[in-house]
Design a protein that fits this description.
The structure is a homodimer of 224-residue chains.
Chain A: E1 3-7, H1 11-23, E2 27-31, H2 34-44, E3 48-52, H3 60-67, E4 75-79, H4 84-92, E5 97-100, H5 105-119, E6 127-129, E7 133-136, E8 141-144, E9 147-149, H6 153-163, E10 169-171, H7 172-179, H8 188-202, E11 212-215, E12 219-222
Parallel strand pairs in A: 1-2, 1-3, 3-4, 4-5
Antiparallel strand pairs in A: 6-7, 7-8, 8-9, 10-12, 11-12
Helix pairs in contact in A: 2-3, 6-7, 6-8
Chain A binds a DNA duplex (30 and 30 nucleotides) through α8.
Amino acid sequence: MSRVLAVDDDRQLLRALRITLRAAGHDVVTAEDGRSALRAAAENHPDVVVLDLGLPDLDGTEVLAGLRPWFPGPVLVLSARSDSRDKVDALDAGADDYVTKPFDMGELLARLRALQRRGTPEPEEPVVRTEHFTVDLAAQQVRVDGGVVRLTPTEWGLFSELVRAPGRLVGQRHLLQAVWGPAYEKETNYLRVYMAQLRRKLEPDPANPRYLRTEPGMGYRFTP
Amino acid sequence: MSRVLAVDDDRQLLRALRITLRAAGHDVVTAEDGRSALRAAAENHPDVVVLDLGLPDLDGTEVLAGLRPWFPGPVLVLSARSDSRDKVDALDAGADDYVTKPFDMGELLARLRALQRRGTPEPEEPVVRTEHFTVDLAAQQVRVDGGVVRLTPTEWGLFSELVRAPGRLVGQRHLLQAVWGPAYEKETNYLRVYMAQLRRKLEPDPANPRYLRTEPGMGYRFTP
DNA sequence: GGCCTTCTTGACGCGACCTTGACGCGGGCA
DNA sequence: TGCCCGCGTCAAGGTCGCGTCAAGAAGGCC
């Protein structure tokens, strides 16, 4: 989902962080001291940083100071010190959140979610364009020559499955299972009927399909 | 500097908050329960909200749910409960930070600074206009041809869910879960009844809906 | 307590969608 | 050359989902 740089000199905690973050779907990079943390951040371009304040070589605020001028993403600070002055210093040095050890992993993940929610407002706009039509996967809408074409639920299920794998061959078993369910893996005639309908609605020349190609004996392929 | 809405039923704490925040240069608005908090937020358009979870009338997450759809700014939650589950729930409900009572005022101010420093990346339009009516998401009000049209709570819940995703298809399961709760995911007849009422109130020609379109078998779509 | 609004629930007709079967065509193969 | 399998096309039947109406239940306000 996103790349996290985790910095801590406690190897056991670092291992726990790596496992937890990875299980939550993050790509994890680690560092055990301040200098390597700054180097790792510059090299790997993480989306978010989890930073322990008590590092052996640099003070936590120094790492923050080295990070902040160029790193725009959220920084969550971990610390064993619960004194308010430490929190204020870290937050004013550029940290976005401050969690005192020991902490609950679920809470850490929730705070990371909250930070990321604010950080990246729009993840992406999945729109696929071809010469003849455009497909908006988020809005579930297809336009042909500017006009909106309505697809039935089954048609959309089949079509979106193909559009999500542009240029790639999608097996008929995979399509049948994705749209109709595992019990229909043999009903290849369904595919024929609905592919014909899709071509009639979308292809400029339905008899000679250009975008929705048949791979005999294998499956179908969407070629933008 | 900026306008802060502070919500707490403890008048003494509320007074301390007002004094501290005002000394830090903020414009302060206060509320003592959930309903007046939502009203005050809609009327005063604060930049940031400090919200106590233990309110007498509404659960804290309900206030968050009422706030989040249209309020883009940061929300800092105060609570006497230090259980991790409470924190995770509040953060996932849309809170940006969670501070347990008792807390240090300096830390609270530092956390508010950190939240405001990150700013509000979502400049979401609180007002949606069409040729026939205008929707004010903040004030929860709809005007048709200049006249105010009253919507019942359920009608508004359904309608706002659609307006918040203009042009996008919203699945019936999503709508049912958002308005009635997860236990009602199968009651599609609710959708039919209330969509008919909304069309009767808003559409110029309810028999041929122009803005609230049906996508058979999938859901509904608001097209501005 | 009585009135009003709002929500829930059921029934019914209609149209669209899914399913199913039949047929023709073309390529691979003996 | 004749057969067979896979694909495309078409049409018809049955089912399902949607819109509509109305009546009963629940809750708030005077």
